[in-house]
Design goal:
Low-confidence stretches: none
Number of strands: 2
Strand order of the largest sheet: 1-2
Radius of gyration: 30 Å
Largest sheet: 2 strands, antiparallel
Order of helices and strands: HEEHH
Helix content: 40-55%
Shape: rod-shaped
Number of domains: 2
Length: 89
């Protein structure tokens, strides 16, 4: 394949994916036109925060029931405890 034809293919590929030609000559320099999305960054941070919060809540709940201890983080679950016998009421 001739060099000019290969250069045209590369040029068309980069133009197709929103790159601009910054400089031409023996070496062609492309510059990207994509920018970081602040909305996507904020959403990612929010999702990670929610996931870690859920994971902490789940682990503390499992830990409360597994150890039988009632630390401060487990006292909310004591309100919804189901009695196992009449002596617990």
């Amino acid at each position: 394949m001739p060099l000019d034809q290969r250069a045209r293919q590369v040029f068309q590929y980069f133009k197709k994916y929103n790159y601009d030609v910054a400089q031409t000559g023996d070496v062609i320099k492309f510059s990207g036109t994509y920018q970081a999305s602040r909305g996507q960054a904020a959403a990612l941070i929010f999702y990670v925060f929610c996931g870690k919060t859920w994971l902490y809540t789940f682990e503390s709940t499992v830990n409360c029931f597994a150890t039988g201890a009632v630390p401060l983080s487990c006292q909310a679950f004591a309100l919804f405890r189901v009695p196992t016998s009449f002596a617990d009421c």
